[in-house]
Amino acid sequence: MEKIALITGSKGGIGSAISNKLVEQGYRVIATYFTGKHECAQKWFKENGFTQEQVRLFELDVTDTDQCAERLAALLNEEGTVDVVINNAGITRDGVFKKMTAESWKDVIDTNLNSVFNVTQPLFATMCEKGGGRVINISSVNGIKGQFGQTNYCAAKAGMIGFSKALAAEGARSGVTVNVVAPGYTLTPMVEMMKPEALEFIKDQIPMRRLAEPQEIAEAVSFLVSDAGAYITGETLSVNGGLYMQ
What we know:
alpha/beta
């Protein structure tokens, strides 16, 4: 029976890699895109060579609690089930805390952390009722170790980890696992736009002396949603090349 995975932030470098990997595994992917960005989503769909049977584009503002509740309830009625939820939507609004605006704080918390509630909550009960499901939250190495100039981002990404541990405890008896993948610096289009000297500085801090490939993050997600990951819950899988070891 075909399984369905919903992915937020699906058009980014990591999101695209996860979407492709799950399609490869036989999942039907529900790829969310931000309100009003249909043309951009269609372009992404075509560039990746997806078919309608493989990927369904799904307009959703992950920061809007009421819209998420309404639209995800409708999705369940249409699709029948969602087996996997991958919360990958994220933004940065970096700046030292002394100068950080309330807007920069709120934007990051809304998109990176509140979205995890908004998207997961309408789907979690159904997963528990049917006796199984997977929730994977994409955090960051900086949510574990902290990073200068990223109090908003680090707070959100650390919050995802606490959320996941607590929800894992609630879902365990119903066969619903909740885990975190915490990537290090990853070779996404956004990172590739950085100045070469900045990239070299980052690589020098990483014991493996390179950035992660998006596909390597996708493989970690793939493992956690597979049968091999069925007995793992409440855990954070770091994929950071040794940048931060716990």
